[in-house]
Amino acid sequence: MSIKKSGSAVWQGGLKDGKGTVSTQSGVLQDVPYSFAKRFEGEAGSNPEELIGAAHASCYSMALSLILGEAGLTAERIATEAKVSLEEVEGGFAISAIHLDTVAKIPGADEAAFQDAADKAKEGCPVSKLFNAEISLSAKLEN
């Protein structure tokens, strides 16, 4: 099976004074503005790192659901946040780390089985496999 999805971006102008828009094939994002100030100076709006974080959090949550299902468990709720670290390195910038923070409510799950599933999902998530960055995880099972 091969699935292809797309996202696109249009940029106009120089790095600091320019502006761009980002869109997705599905139309969920349509001409969402992004800029240097939104990425590096804290101005409100979207940027590549938050989009990567959203993609990673959603992929991880689905991977965890799959692994739990294989163990005969169904999550009532999985909430994941991916914190993406962009750092200045020699020669420019790089995404150096991503920290996944997940909280799940899973009826019938014990802590050991949950932590095992959470770790397997971190390693097996297709988006995790994409990055050349340290990926860490904090996983909490709710009662």
How would you describe this structure to a colleague?
- By secondary structure, the chain is of the alpha+beta class.
- 33% of the residues lie in helices and 36% in strands.
- The protein has a 3-stranded antiparallel sheet. Strands 4-5-6 form a 3-stranded mixed sheet, covered by helices on one side.
- Strand 4 (77-89) and strand 5 form a beta hairpin.
- The longest helix is centred in the middle third of the chain and has 23 residues, at 48-70.
- The radius of gyration is 17 Å and the shape is elongated.
Order of helices and strands: EEEHHEEHHE
What would you call the shape? elongated
**Biggest pleated sheet:** 3 strands, antiparallel
**Individual helix count:** 4
* Major β-sheet strand ordering: 1-2-3
Mean pLDDT: 94
Strand content is: 35-45%
Assembly category: single chain
Number of strands: 6
Organism: Halomonas gemina
Protein name: OsmC family protein
InterPro entries: KH_dom-like_a/b, OsmC/Ohr_fam, OsmC/Ohrsf, OsmC_Ohr_Peroxiredoxin, Peroxiredoxin_OsmC
Pfam families: OsmC
